[in-house]
């Protein structure tokens, strides 16, 4: 069956050109939501074409969401639509491998600005409107990486630790307002993340990964149910539980074995 004839609201999805974000957008489209999707690459237009073939009304925006200006452009697109945002799926993110001192600082800074600055700025704008209206759902893509000191992925894991913590705090602040906040915490997922992060020569980059469609469904369902957080996949649930009981120094050493350059098994 196609998507519902009656449009039931507006969903905004960032990082929707591929991977988990694209799958989240597909689920929203199939459930009858109109869409505003954004990413920092032209492929967002291809994603929009697929979603339109599903029957969805879609506006696609190419914008650098690591900058305040890029987020402002998205906010202007939302305002031009003239409707309130029912679902905000803040999924845009960026990774970076190798040792911190071996990274170009401009690249490390962009990871921080995409994952943290751009995400919280967008949530501040859209979340304020939701609170005023007394309704809305926010899904933040965190990660189980946020539970682990990420040797050779230190900036990325640090930003996800921030998002995991931020989501719980924001959820508490918004209780009884009609606005829910859910944190999706996936593990390694079969997307272009490890290619873009220059981590294909690592053990984790070559390991078996979760299906982004499965991860997206877990997160979307949790958001619609008003859950506070969800870890996608039983292996990741186990890893998250173990991480809470393991000394940080041990976790850092374990992560190094997976993420250090040249650790990929032949």
Automatic annotation (TrEMBL):
InterPro entries reported for this sequence: NAD(P)-bd_dom_sf (IPR036291), Sc_DH/Rdtase_CS (IPR020904), SDR_fam (IPR002347)
Leader sequence residues: none
Family, per entry: Belongs to the short-chain dehydrogenases/reductases (SDR) family.
Pfam families: adh_short
Molecular function GO labels: oxidoreductase activity
Cited CDD domains: SDR_c (cd05233)
Keywords from the named record: Oxidoreductase
A cellular-component GO term for this protein: membrane
Name this polypeptide is given: Short-subunit dehydrogenase
């Amino acid at each position: 069956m196609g998507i519902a004839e009656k449009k039931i609201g507006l969903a905004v999805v960032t990082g929707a050109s591929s991977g988990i974000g694209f799958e989240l957008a597909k689920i929203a489209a199939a459930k009858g939501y109109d869409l505003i999707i954004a990413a920092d690459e032209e492929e967002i237009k291809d994603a929009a074409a697929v979603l339109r073939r599903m029957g969805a009304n879609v506006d696609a925006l190419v914008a650098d969401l690591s900058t305040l200006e890029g987020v402002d452009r998205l906010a202007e697109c939302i305002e031009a639509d003239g409707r309130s945002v029912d679902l905000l799926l803040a999924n845009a993110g960026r990774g970076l491998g190798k040792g911190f001192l071996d990274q170009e600082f401009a690249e490390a800074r962009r990871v921080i600005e995409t994952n943290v600055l751009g995400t919280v700025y967008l949530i501040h704008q859209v979340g304020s409107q939701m609170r005023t209206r007394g309704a809305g759902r926010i899904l933040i893509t965190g990660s189980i990486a946020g539970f682990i000191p990420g040797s050779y992925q230190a900036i990325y894991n640090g930003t996800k630790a921030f998002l995991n913590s931020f989501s719980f705090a924001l959820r508490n602040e918004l209780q009884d307002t009609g606005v829910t906040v859910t944190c999706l915490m996936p593990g390694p997922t079969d997307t272009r993340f490890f290619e873009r992060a220059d981590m294909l020569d690592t053990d984790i980059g070559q390991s078996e990964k979760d299906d982004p469609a499965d991860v997206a469904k877990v997160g979307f369902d949790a958001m619609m149910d008003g859950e506070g957080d969800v870890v996608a996949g039983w292996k990741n649930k186990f890893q998250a539980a173990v991480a809470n009981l393991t000394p940080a120094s041990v976790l850092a050493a374990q992560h190094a074995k997976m993420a250090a350059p040249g650790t990929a098994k032949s």
